UniProtKB/TrEMBL annotation:
Membrane topology: Multi-pass membrane protein
UniProtKB keywords: Cell outer membrane, Membrane, Receptor, Signal, Transmembrane, Transmembrane beta strand, Transport
Entry annotated with the keyword Transmembrane: yes
Full protein name: TonB-dependent receptor plug domain-containing protein
Length: 651
């Protein structure tokens, strides 16, 4: 779709919505009496009954962070580092939870795993998803393969998309405009545009939600110029998102949910940093197109509930990339298909004990066409069938237990077992909950690692085990919430890339040896008054040398929210990132060189004003107020001081 049409459509919806807005309508939002989480049992569970410290980014918190990306929002959570969120919009993202890496973090959308089966690590690209379509996010850290299977080795990010409201017809329109500049090359021209709208409604039996989003960003180069006198060409980024969800209530016990979405990103990029200064180019472009559809029936009966989550995902990535050796542009395309079917049942054995049992089926295939060789999807595929069971016991005296196991049956490498045990105790006489857990997990070799020209069909899964212990408390009549968790992880069978200097052959291999990671995460929330709230977290992470890349040893996030009035909201956010290690390809020696990146601090602020209650809201934000010049990845540009203005209208 033409970008101008998308913008005009979004603006039209904004104007139309304004015309229908009624100032005298007041919709009071009632806070839930009991906060619930779903990530550690797949069903709603009171947070005090959970044996995990699960970070939850609520709809209200997302409302107070307009104009931010999913990556930037996640980067404020204790124990989570999303590398690349401070760089150019088209920069690849790195997910590091508790010292892990991309393929050890499982991302769910509405409880369904998402990934790119053609990628080396099979990870999902969070750049595909706009924050405006997200209702809430849960982050559960630690090994979780018992419930979620492969990839849930260091954490699970469960993203819940928006759905229909309670009205028969309602809508939402938004737009924002901002600058996009680095600290050394400041400019105040409008370079960041984001706009979209949604319509939704509900009748007695039918519910629906449809949304469109468009984003265009330009202004900076992906790689950083060697000094402020050199100006590299801009690397623009664009994104287009369509989302549709339909629900039908067949009976009071049976509901049917359908979804479909199409996401597309396009961006220019540079050849990757080296120290020869030859990587900047205007010839490299890439696009990713994702199509997902799914069906999820739910059936409730007297003592339980059965859910069938199913989805089909097709993703196509293409690249036009300059080959500096031949001085020609080569074309590459990667295509993957994934099917996920997860049928699980919750059965209440007793009022204090329920069982979750299920079977998950996954199928992945991929093919690619590149200047260096092709991969045929007929021989590049695998499937998995995993039965699993989890028991959840919650007692009246405060003792809770979550324990389970999963049997993974893989078409390429055979079978294996993972399990978890997660006891906790919530003191009745004290505002204190003690948590502990021991969990094992696995990461399946990707199709690329198994079957590409560098593949090794004899690879077996990476394995790890995680132990954690901590506490959670509430003080001062629940005005202060504080939690501390310590973790220790061991991983084996690490999949690495090996080059044989004798035969000049390269391939993926399982590397012998044990790699360890340990750390402490703590978060404190302090309601200074009804209007003023302070939320801060600190993360300490220590990993073995083999894992030590782009992971800060110390990290601090601190957020101060001030509700000046019922209509005026202001916050300020501080972030400290400790020194990290990185590496780059040395164009002079043709070797990989390690470097140490310095620590940095960033301060951001935002104001949001509700002109018309629950109808018309405007916001303004400043990112990197003091225009700090820092390095997130060696040789890549980072964001300096930038401004953004936006508005949202609800019908």
């Amino acid at each position: 779709m033409n970008k101008k049409i998308v913008r005009i459509s979004a603006l039209f919806v904004l104007v139309a919505t304004c015309a229908f807005a009624q100032e005298n309508e007041n919709v009071a939002s009632k806070r839930e009496l009991e906060e619930v989480v779903v990530s550690d049992s797949k069903f709603a569970l009171a947070k005090e009954k959970s044996g995990k410290v699960i970070a939850k980014i609520t709809a209200e918190e997302l409302k107070n962070r307009p104009g931010q990306s999913i990556a930037a929002i996640l980067n404020t959570v204790a124990g989570v580092e999303i590398n690349g969120n401070q760089s150019a919009a088209g920069k690849n993202l790195g997910y590091y939870i508790r010292g892990g890496k991309n393929n050890q973090v499982l991302i769910l959308i509405d409880g369904i795993p998402v990934n790119d089966a053609s990628g080396i690590s099979m990870e999902y690209d969070l750049r595909l998803l706009p924050a405006e379509q997200v209702e809430s996010i849960e982050i559960m850290k630690g090994a979780a393969s018992t419930l979620y299977g492969t990839g849930a080795a260091t954490g699970v990010i469960n993203i819940k998309l928006k759905k229909s409201g309670k009205k028969s017809v309602s809508g939402n329109g938004y737009c924002s405009i901002g600058t996009n500049a680095t600290a050394t090359q400041q400019n105040q021209k409008a370079s960041d545009f984001n706009q979209g709208f949604s319509v939704n409604g509900r009748t007695t039996k039918l519910s629906y939600f449809a949304a469109l989003n468009s984003t265009e960003t330009k202004g900076i180069s992906q790689i950083a110029p060697p000094n402020f006198n050199v100006h590299y060409e801009e690397d623009p980024f664009s994104r287009l998102n369509y989302l549709a969800k339909i629900g039908y209530k067949v009976t009071n016990k049976l509901t049917l949910d359908f979804f479909g979405n199409y996401d597309q990103i396009k961006n220019a990029y540079d050849g990757g940093f080296d120290n020869t200064g030859t990587s900047d180019t205007n010839l490299n472009t890439t696009s990713s197109k994702q199509f997902r559809l799914g069906f999820s029936p739910k059936f409730k009966y007297d003592k339980g509930e059965f859910v069938l989550s199913s989805s089909f995902n097709k993703l196509v990535r293409s690249y036009d990339e300059l080959d500096t050796y031949s001085n020609s542009v080569g074309f590459s395309q990667y295509e993957s298909r994934s099917v996920n079917v997860d049928g699980f049942n919750k059965y209440e054995v007793a009022p204090s004990f329920f069982l979750v049992s299920g079977v998950q089926y996954q199928f992945h295939d991929a093919n690619s066409v590149t200047p260096y060789g092709n991969i045929d999807k007929e021989s590049t595929k695998f499937n998995m069938i995993d039965p699993y069971v989890t028991g959840v016991y919650t007692s009246n005296v405060g003792f809770n237990l979550n324990a389970g196991a999963r049997w993974n049956s893989h078409s390429a490498y055979g079978n294996q077992l993972v399990y978890n045990i997660n006891p906790s105790f919530d003191f009745q006489s004290l505002p204190l909950k003690i948590i502990s857990s021991y969990s094992t997990a696995f990461v399946t070799p990707s199709l690329y690692q198994l079957y590409s020209q560098y593949g090794n069909s004899k690879l077996t899964p990476e394995k790890n085990s995680t132990a954690e212990v901590g506490f959670e408390t509430q003080l001062g009549n629940k005005k202060i919430r504080w939690n501390v968790v310590g973790f220790y992880r061991e991983q084996t069978n690490f999949i690495g890339f090996y080059y044989n200097p004798t035969t000049y052959a390269s391939n993926y291999v399982n590397i012998d040896g044990l790699n360890k990671a340990k750390g402490i995460e703590t978060e404190i929330q302090f309601a200074l008054s009804d209007k003023l709230k302070w939320n801060s977290n600190y993360t300490f992470t220590q990993v073995d040398e083999a894992l030590n890349r782009l992971i800060p040893k110390h990290k601090i996030n601190s957020l101060l929210d001030y509700k000046v009035s019922d209509s005026f909201f202001w916050n300020v956010n501080y972030q400290y990132i400790d020194a990290r290690k990185d590496a780059f390809f040395d164009g002079n020696t043709y070797a990989t060189t390690q470097v140490k990146l310095g620590s940095y601090q960033v301060l951001n602020t935002l104001v949001r004003y509700e002109i018309t209650k629950n109808k018309l809201t405007v916001f303004g934000s400043v990112h990197n107020i003091f225009n700090v010049d820092f390095v997130e990845n060696i040789g890549y540009s980072t964001l300096g001081r930038n401004f953004k203005l936006g508005l949202t209208i609800n019908l």
